[in-house]
Amino acid sequence: MTTPLKPPPLRAARIHRITGPVRQFLQIEAMSGAVLLVATVVALILANSPLAEAVAHFWHTEVQLGVGTWSFNKPLEFWVNDGLMTVFFFIVGLEVKREIVYGELRTVRKALLPVIAAVGGMIVPAGVYLLFANGPIVNRGWAIPMATDIAFVVGLLAAFGKRVPFGLKVFLLSLAIADDIGAILVIAVAYTEKLDFVLLAFAVLGVLAILGMQWLGIRRIPLYLMVAVAVWYCTYQSGIHPTIAGVVFGLITPHRAWLGRKALSLALDDISGRLNDRPDPMKLAPVDVAMLREASSEVVSPLQRLEDQLHPWVGFAIMPLFALANAGLVVQPQSLGQPVALGVLFGLLLGKVSGIVLFSTLAIKLKLTSLPNGVGWLHLIAGGFLGGIGFTMSLFIGALAFDDLPKALAEAKAGVLAGSVCAAVAGAVLLALAKPVGRSKSGASAGGERSSETAASRPPPARTTTPAGGTASGSS
Q1: Is the pLDDT reported for residue 73 higher than 60?
Q2: Do residue 317 and residue 270 come from a single domain?
Q3: What 3-state class would DSSP assign to 260?
């Protein structure tokens, strides 16, 4: 009896030996919170060093894009806050759609607790802010303490490992997504002063063009990217913050794969049969390679593929760049005594936990919903405090509210940093004191936002069974 030959090992390119460990690092999504923290500390150190003026000058460096007589000239800080952050909001849109289609927001009962908690976690902090900063100008920052920074929250939860109930992770992730929806609506409505309806109409036409290309089955990403850039520009010029365009792009991204599993199986069988018919079975024809590449890539939905590809870039590049550009604050203890800083600080530290716990309690007492599996009331209070970590989105809204008021913006940054740190410490202490309740699925990883999905929330295989090379249409 002859021993079957082992297939030759795949030869890895040298670059893969370098990127392999990097990819493994990127997969630990909780580390993005640590990277964001490092970027924040660096920004604070630079802002309080002799290099502060040079750093500020760097972020105000003009960057110009132009073709012929047309030019678009903006400072580097704009390209980070309004350009790269559009990709961040695109990921937010993808996550919102994923949760609505497959996750905790797909049914009314599952969505009630995090959504109601998120509503309380937005209304009460805004009210607390207005108690301290209720002047004709400073009240523009009422939305700053409304948001939750899920990257920092996930990073902190990861530090506790299996001590954190799986249900709490799902609850906080869903709450943060509902928070993001609220923040998006606030940005679109409260911080839009004047609209150019002609340019807004062009932006809407661009979105319809993207939907039309999806319906026609066009799969070329460069075509979508060109239309998306045009929509972004028209949105900005219309008066709406351009990051809203990123959210729209995420929401209209197809969640079903172009090809189904049966199509992939047929393609593999076809290639395998033709390989066996060749004199040299180890040689692949270009058409076989192209078919295999298309079948393997199109069996994954655009939503899942784009989220997997872009999430590391957002967590490890875009958000740290945003922190470097916006977290720089000249440390002045007296700033924390100002109305804006106090409103943001207590809005995040006390308003968040009060709103989340109060509204959650009402929903549970009214029997509209129930606490997640393994989650006790002390866990819920700890989660409420963690919801007060509002770093990224709070800084973003602060920059919109006080873009023409440097002093108020500095006070808002001080409140965001102080409130987020205090909320994180309070939440961590309560998590350490909380004991497991009932049976908990805490064995699930706290490695990142997507790791908190249950098996039921994962996208099912595509329903289409079109053979490779067919013309099935992905729906959005």
Answers
A1: yes
A2: no
A3: coil
Taken in order 145, 149, 154, 160, is the CA torsion positive or negative? Answer: negative
What is the distance between the alpha carbons of residues 91 and 184, in angstroms, rounded to a whole number? 13
CA distance 359 to 355: 6
Q: Is 435 exposed, middle or buried (0-12, 13-18, 19+ CB in 10 A)?
A: exposed
pLDDT at residue 176, as a whole number: 85
265 and 365, same domain (yes or no)? no
Residue 74 has φ and ψ, to the nearest 5°, of -140, 155
Give me the residues paired with residue 67 across strands.
Answer: 70
State pTM to two decimals.
0.72
Q: Decide: helix, strand or coil at residue 48.
A: coil
Model confidence pLDDT, tens digit, residues 274-333: 666 666 655 666 666 666 666 666 777 888 888 888 888 888 888 889 889 888 878 777
Whether 140 and 272 map to the same domain: the answer is no
H/E element, 63: strand 62-67
- Among the listed residues 75, 110, 85, the one whose alpha carbon sits nearest the alpha carbon of residue 323: 85
What pLDDT is recorded for position 232?
94
Which amino acid is it at 119?
Answer: V
Q: Tell me, what CATH number does 359's domain have?
A: 1.20.1530.10
**pLDDT score for 292:** 66
pLDDT digits (tens, 9 = 90+) for 170-181: 888 888 888 888
Q: Is residue 22 part of a domain?
A: no
Q: To the nearest whole percent, how much of the chain has pLDDT over 70?
A: 78
> Nearest-CA neighbor of 472 among 457, 462, 461, 460?
462
Element containing residue 70 per DSSP (H, E): strand 70-75
Closest of 255, 249, 112, 103 to residue 184, by C-alpha:
249
Determine contact, residues 301/257, Cβ cutoff 8 Å. Answer: yes
Angle between helices 406-433 and 339-346 (to 10 degrees): 30
Residue 450 and residue 314 share a domain: yes
Structural domain of residue 309, as residue ranges?
30-192+241-256+301-455
Mark whether 278 and 384 lie in a shared domain.
Answer: no
Answer yes or no: is 13 within a domain: no
The count of structural domains within the chain is 2
Higher-confidence residue: 123 or 473? Answer: 123
Cross-strand pairs, 74: 63
Structure confidence at residue 427 as a pLDDT band (50, 70, 90): very high
Query: Are 315 and 411 part of one and the same domain?
Result: yes
For the chain, first and last CA: distance in Å?
A: 55
The mean pLDDT of 217-240, rounded to a whole number, is 90
Instruction: List the structure tokens of 158.
Output: 């990861």
